[in-house]
Amino acid sequence: YYGCYLYDLDIGEMVSNSVHLVPNSVNVITPKEDIDMSHRINLRLYANENGGKNQKAKFHRLMLVEGEYTSETMPPYVPKWIPAAADLAVEAESQSLPAGYRPSTQGDTHDGEYDLAVKMPKVATKVVTPWGDDKEVIMIPPGVKLFPARIQVDTPQGTLDNPAEYFSADWGNGMKGMQVLLDAEQIGTGTMVVEPDIYDDLSKARYRVTGVVGAYAKLEDFEDGTRVVAEIDTSAFNANYHALRLINGNRNGVGFMVAEDRFSVIIMFGNEKRSTTSVGNSKMLRRVEFIYNADVSLCKIYIDGVEVPVSQELLDGSDVISGLEMRSPVFSLLAEIYSPDGTLLHKWDMEGATDDERLADKAVTENPINLSKGSGFKLTPI
Predict the structure, then answer these.
(1) Cα angle value 161/165/168 (rounded, 5°)
(2) Mind listing the pLDDT tens digit for each residue in 100-109?
(3) How far is CA 110 from CA 115, 311, 329, 339, in A?
(4) The whole model's pTM is what?
């Protein structure tokens, strides 16, 4: 018997059906649908008669056909006549354009750079809070000062998972971004209306950052009444990671850090002790405010504008690790340091048109500390 098939040399497999050829007739093999034509493909032919060796055979008129094979009884294929260049030149001499076909004057030529944009599909938006959205009455529980709010974007295909990658918002009170912390008192008194303007670009985006460091040796002494304000995204909290650290080891480790230690614990460092409290594993934006005092019992910590009780622990010297950093994988959005008299000493708010602007110290001070990109650096719009 005689046969043939296609063989892929790169993967070592047969990539067609194997056909036993019938002498003096047309035989067809078909490649598999998933054949990779970038590979080396062999056509393998064989002849074997009654198990004998050294058999000889002739294979005639091998063809590679695209489409379906038609019998020789079909009329022969005759391609359309394609004129050569010389033929076109002769033909052109006998042709003429109608009067007025080509205008006597040419139009203006516009040469420049143009931006192409993709029109976003029609979307619906709403402001979502822990107690409902703005399509209904939102009942804010008593005692709430600041609370998170986010803009949900719904498209015909469903709710966007990360709308801040495509949209941004201006809340009209200096706040930007698709996620913010709202002041319950301002809403309750009518001084703030929750109607953000939404943009289908990132012109009003707010950013969160991780993996940045600064020159901690330039930090001022923490004095009684030094106040620190920080906004962090706890959704990425991971055990034993520091979200924000502002500690100068040259000054007896006085400072503070926000960390996650089993239950999203906030740690305030004093000279010999530290005070701690739990922010709760809330997986949302949180605003934390520290007021420092050398007497740890007089330190104050506020979470989302509400003062929380703190515990006290002896400070193990091994816990004092100097640094000015916002570490991965936890994201920080804002860090401010105020002197006891209320002077703004440092402000990092991640706003600006470039990375350098976003990491710059925005405080008007003679001692600016700009942040630098470190390991795991990432800026993400929210």
Answers:
(1) 105
(2) 666 666 667 7
(3) 15, 71, 50, 58
(4) 0.62
